Amino acid sequence: MQPRQSRNLVHPLPLSRTPLPAVDIGGFFHMLQGALALYIQTEGQPENTNPEFIEEFPRERITKQDETFDIITFRVKSAVPAPNTNSGGAPKRPALRESKPSPTLGPDYKEQVYGWWETVRPEFTIWSRNNANANDMTEWFHIFLMKYAFINKYFAGRGIENFVFIERADEDVDHNEGQEIYKRRLTYEFRLNRMLTTQSRSLTNVSVTYGIGNQVDQIELTSNK
Question: Given a cut of 80, is residue 131 above it in pLDDT?
Fold first, then answer.
């Protein structure tokens, strides 16, 4: 299934920088990990659960009945160029957003900031040995994301815009190692402001003298030092 285009994704004047350090896709999940730990500390977690937010499914723990198995895994379901025009067109390459003298390498160098936008769909899967726990954790995690995105404005300023909830997929049961593992899937979408900063030597004029026979001429060429 092709990713559905979200509405209102056009940013007429993209910022060259974000107020806070901008994150990439991996940084988004890392940021969520810290936010979730804070949420558990301040507001608690569902009764009879011990949620863990991890990247890989811990298969080695399935057979250990004495361990809790309340897991939230994450993955990138899709990432595509984001439209930046009213017609829905998406650029195919980064655009130069800012060029200025380098603040660290001196006046002979310039700092250039390139940027582009991506529409990213993260998917979260909630796993538990208990069906009720899986339902409780799914509701709890969804409320956490909506609160931190829209009320606490936790994503704002970090290059994450237009965060929206897409769907909760059909409930499912995974049979592994003779056990029933209940799983729920939540999909969201956001617009990611990608930025890349480069340092380069400024262009200068170079004088070149050349001659043919008795004729000598001089020209100036523009090149990098």
Answer: yes
- What is the C-alpha separation between 214 and 216, in angstroms, rounded? 7
Structural domain count, the chain:
1
Q: What is the average per-residue pLDDT within 188-211?
A: 73
- Both tokens of 80, joined, read 């595509």
pTM listed for this prediction: 0.74
State which amino acid sits at residue 145: L
3-class secondary-structure state, position 72: strand
Inside any domain, residue 39: yes
**Does residue 97 belong to any structural domain of this protein?**
no
Question: Are the CB atoms for 222 and 203 separated by under 8 Å?
Answer: yes
Long-range pairs of 96-102 with CB within 8 A, sequence gap ≥ 24: 97/14, 97/15, 97/16, 97/195, 98/16, 98/17, 102/199
Neighbours of 13 (CB within 10 A): 5
Q: Give the integer Cα–Cα distance in Å for 161 and 167.
A: 18
Q: What is the residue range of 124's domain?
A: 25-83+112-194
Q: Confidence band (pLDDT; 50, 70, 90) for 206?
A: low
Asked which of 105-114, 116-125, 130-139 is least confident by mean pLDDT, the reply is: 105-114
Rounded to whole angstroms, how far apart are CA atoms 209 and 23? 50
Contacts of 132 (CB under 8 A, 6+ apart): none
Q: Is residue 212 part of a domain?
A: no
39 φ, ψ to 5°? -65, -40
